[in-house]
Design a protein that fits this description.
Strand content of chain A: under 5%
Largest interface: A-B, 43 and 40 residues
Distance between the termini of chain A: 46 Å
Order of helices and strands of chain A: HHHHEEHHHHHHH
Number of strands of chain B: 2
Strand order of the largest sheet of chain A: 1-2
Radius of gyration of chain B: 19 Å
Structural class of chain B: mainly alpha
Oligomer: heterodimer
Helix content of chain B: over 70%
Distance between the termini of chain B: 23 Å
Largest sheet of chain A: 2 strands, antiparallel
Strand content of chain B: under 5%
Structural class of chain A: mainly alpha
Number of domains of chain A: 1
């Protein structure tokens, strides 16, 4: 029983981090109809940045984390300005360009950081007894609360601020938004940067627990995509629920069915969603 | 096909008969691999360039063809040609299934799902090593009793030409017309009575079958099938060949395959940098010259002749 609870807790912790990563993809899809296939690479870069800032340069880990996210935000803005902006309206080219970009970044990571897995230092050590049932690592507990904090700030940003209103306006009706004075180029750029930063946030939060390697990036992208489809394209609530479902199923599946096939559970979910509810849990049924 | 084009193609085919007479074994190998990439890039172009749907499972489908045929010949003793035909059928069925599920939801869903399909296939092949030999690679029989690069060259040449003829026929048929109608204006196409989803699913299944066929021949040529065949790295090469050569044109992927494969032999000494280099070239082309090398040349010629 306590074993089951531990796997379940793992699933929930991974689930909220899945949600952060997926919201990064969902924001960009919702506003620009662009899927960023380089999402996983941004996550990996954030993990390596965080590692090198704190281990190689001696920056305190708690400062290295937001600093890495900020770098990824800038990379995202740069990507949007140079490569993505000219493809608006041409779905095919945006898919091709972000896919090529993912291969380029993956090879660049291999070149810059080497093939070895790295993990930034833990913020805390030790473990805590949860309700007298089982022991759970403090780093994971802290990661969970940091993730909840990040999720709450995203929801605040999108539901309560001017920037969030512009984002929602554009994803509902681009032309109407432009008519009432929303500068969609600027919002696109910032939203792409924010989407990238969320990949970075997931990367810096999870990398102390699961080390990053350049070859691990495609499964990270894929996880985020599965959550987005499961939750419904463009739905933030869907990302949270979908992220938790995927996190829990993957961890229970890996524990009780097969570790080697951990990533297959996600793909099975994707296929089931496409068969029975292709618009996802909270997506809008169109057509 | 007008007369001029017919003569040009004929001249190319005649020229293609000669390489075994003067090329070394090594460069003959490069030519055979190039022909494999011509099949891959041209059949990928059939869906991406002509119907606007980006599949990331093309290399995966070639892996389906290679592994199906490889395992049938190794474990059941089937002759390679029969194995390849069955492998092609399996690729077509899987392509139809994936296409049927995703295409009604739009191009983004197809790209996401095909990426997932590639990853899952890689995981299954590496983990089921009692059947696939995992990363060690599956040793399979060759096509000919006596191994000869010259025989393989002519075999690949014939298969490639046949495949290109089929692709050409499809592009210039009624079906090709509907492909382009769907690409140019989906709403207009569907309102003029074209079932856009059915056209796209069909195109996707045909193209996947072609990848399965190419992969089957590739496996029996290399005689060792590894998870690199269905990898995303391989997928990227095929995509880069089509993009750099010129998507949406018949000649583009053919030119791109030869250029990139021959180029990669020259820069092989620098190790794995060639993937990074090809990636940067492909990005620059997609950004500044989406019609590819063939498009640039065509424009230039037109200007000089005018």
């Amino acid at each position: 029983m306590s074993e089951f609870l531990m796997y379940l807790t793992n699933g929930i912790v991974i689930g909220v981090i899945n949600a952060i990563s997926a919201i990064g993809v969902s924001l960009i899809v919702g506003i620009m109809k662009v899927v960023n296939f380089a999402h996983g690479e941004l996550y990996i870069f954030a993990g390596y940045f965080s590692y090198h800032l704190s281990v190689s340069l001696g920056v305190p880990p708690l400062l290295a984390m937001p600093l890495s996210i900020f770098f990824i935000f800038l990379i995202g803005i740069g990507m949007e300005r140079t490569l993505i902006r000219p493809t608006y309206g041409d779905e095919m080219y945006s898919l091709i360009i972000t896919f090529v970009l993912s291969i380029v970044l993956q090879n660049a990571a291999l070149l810059i950081f080497g093939p070895y897995p790295q993990k930034p230092p833990n913020l805390v050590t030790g473990a805590m007894n949860i309700f007298g049932l089982y022991h759970y690592g403090n780093q994971r507990i802290l990661s969970f609360f940091i993730s909840i904090g990040v999720l709450l700030s995203i929801f605040y940003l999108i539901k309560r601020t001017w920037f969030g209103k512009s984002i929602r306006a554009i994803s509902q009706d681009r032309e109407m938004a432009a008519l009432v004075g929303v500068d969609h180029l600027k919002v696109n750029m910032l939203a792409f940067g924010l989407g990238a930063a969320l990949a970075g946030a997931a990367g810096v939060i999870l990398s102390p627990i699961f080390p990053v390697t350049p070859s691990g990036s495609s499964s990270i992208s894929l996880n985020a995509f599965i959550v987005v489809v499961l939750g419904g394209m463009g739905s933030l609530k869907g990302c949270v629920v979908g992220g938790l479902i995927l996190g829990i199923l993957e961890n229970l599946g890996a524990a009780y069915i097969s570790t080697m096939y951990r990533h297959i559970f996600g793909f099975i979910i994707l296929i089931l969603v496409l068969v029975f509810r292709p618009w996802g849990l909270f997506g809008q049924k169109t057509q | 096909m007008d007369n001029k084009k017919l003569w040009i193609s004929f001249a190319f085919i005649i020229l293609a008969l000669f390489p075994p007479l003067f090329l070394s074994q090594y460069w003959l190998h490069v030519m055979i691999i190039s022909l494999f990439y011509v099949m891959m890039a041209s059949s990928w172009n059939l869906i991406a360039g002509f119907t606007g749907q980006v599949s990331f499972a093309h290399a995966a489908f070639s892996g389906v063809g290679a592994y199906t045929s490889g395992m049938l010949t190794v474990y059941l003793g089937l002759p390679p040609w029969l194995g390849i035909l069955i492998g092609m059928g399996v690729a077509a069925l899987l392509g139809f299934g994936v296409g049927y599920l995703c295409i009604r939801m739009g191009g983004i869903y197809l790209s996401l799902t095909t990426l997932g399909f590639s990853e899952i296939l890689r995981i299954i092949i590496t983990n089921e090593d009692q059947w696939t030999r995992g990363t060690m690679g599956l040793q399979v029989p060759g096509f000919f009793v006596e191994y000869s690069k010259t025989s393989y060259y002519y075999l690949f040449l014939i298969v490639t030409i046949l495949l290109l003829i089929v692709i050409y026929k499809i592009i210039h048929s009624e079906m090709g017309l509907t492909f382009r109608a769907v690409l140019n204006d989906e709403v207009a196409a569907s309102s003029s009575g074209i079932n856009t989803v059915r056209v796209r699913v069909l195109a996707f299944a045909i193209s996947s079958a072609m990848a399965g066929l190419a992969g089957g021949f590739y496996g029996h040529y290399l005689m060792l099938i590894t998870p690199d065949v269905p990898s995303l790295g391989q997928m990227f090469l095929v995509l880069a060949m089509a993009v750099i050569g010129g998507m949406g044109s018949f000649a583009g992927p053919i030119v791109g395959s030869f250029v990139l494969e021959i180029l990669s032999e020259y820069i092989r000494v620098y190790g794995e940098y060639h993937v990074l280099l090809f990636g940067l070239i492909a990005l620059a082309m997609a950004r500044f010259a989406p019609e590819g090398v063939v498009g640039i040349l065509r424009k230039k010629w037109r200007r000089e002749w005018a």
